[in-house]
Amino acid sequence: MAKNGMRVGLDLEQTSIAGAQIKGNKAGQTLSAAAVRALPGGLVYEGEVVDIEGLAAEMKSFWKEGGFSGKKVCLGIANQKIVVRTLDLPLVDGKELEAAVQFQAQEAIPIPIDEAVLDHQVIATAPGEDGNGGSQKVLLVAAQRDMVTQFVEAARKAGLSVDGIDLQAFALARAIAPPVPFIDQGSPEPAEASALVNIGSGITNIVVVSGGAPRFTRVINLGYEALVGALANNRGISPAEADALRLSVGLSGGAQVPVGDLEQDTVDEIHQVLDGAAEAFADEIRRSVDYYHSQDNPGHVGRLLLSGEGSLTRNISEYLAQSLHMDVQLGDPLQHVSGNTSKIAQTDLQVIAPRLSIAVGLALEDEE
Q1: What predicted TM-score, i.e. pTM, was given to this entire model?
Q2: What range defines the domain where residue 104 resides?
Q3: Is residue 120 part of a domain?
Q4: In the chain, N or C terminus with fewer CB closer than 10 Å?
């Protein structure tokens, strides 16, 4: 991550691009610039760059229009060419930890080491008896080098300097993870865990955090466009019209309010179509949480925090709460940001904040 006090996070999705620039330090972080803009189709698909030249042109104009200063950027990645594994290692650090991660990675990931970009994060430590020995859990991230290179090349052609590349799941946790309960602070076995779910246009990021650290991550090739497509096909309308209904009518489960001149029968039909399409999201989240609980992971997942453009789907929190029997809320990516000096008014910023979640997380400085 960038450490120069002026970090810009850039989140590239299938249908849009979001950026956030944050200045300051732990004493106070200020959002100095932010923007969200639609992307033409065919540039990014399922988290991978498809058209380097086209994406570079969009990034260049977006950077200028968004009022971002400097040229350094942190990019977030999430797709099926990234592998995340948890390693159990001795309690070592520095070069010894690097060597241990490299050695274990050869067996833990299905990507040849010379074709992968590796990163790791210590998520838990346990001292040995009488201060001797000890162990630690390390989250290993391996990404195919060619895939990463495409993002870097697009940024370079846009005139930007890549100051860091981070897993979107880590950025999401940095932005919207809830504060660690007092009882769990410093505990190697926290009692509580939360699932963070960022619903993008073509992919959804799921990350479980416990004790302030990501413990499990998963990317699924399913986004809110699945809802839009189902509704457009069912009603014979354009994707733009279907997307407007996703936002204004949405799913069932929430308070019933009049929607324009739509008859109640029509509203009920829209609910039925979107509810059916949303079952896949509920199933994937349930499967992820069940898997987390089945492994040697700390904390019971009792809360779900949503973010991303898909989280703005009307009544989606209520729908998922009923389906998953879980407390579901909208995450707050601005919880660590104390000021706003960007060109976006605070009221407008609150509206687009869910889409900025990963960009904000990329721009925030890691706590050391």
Answers
A1: 0.93
A2: 82-141
A3: yes
A4: C
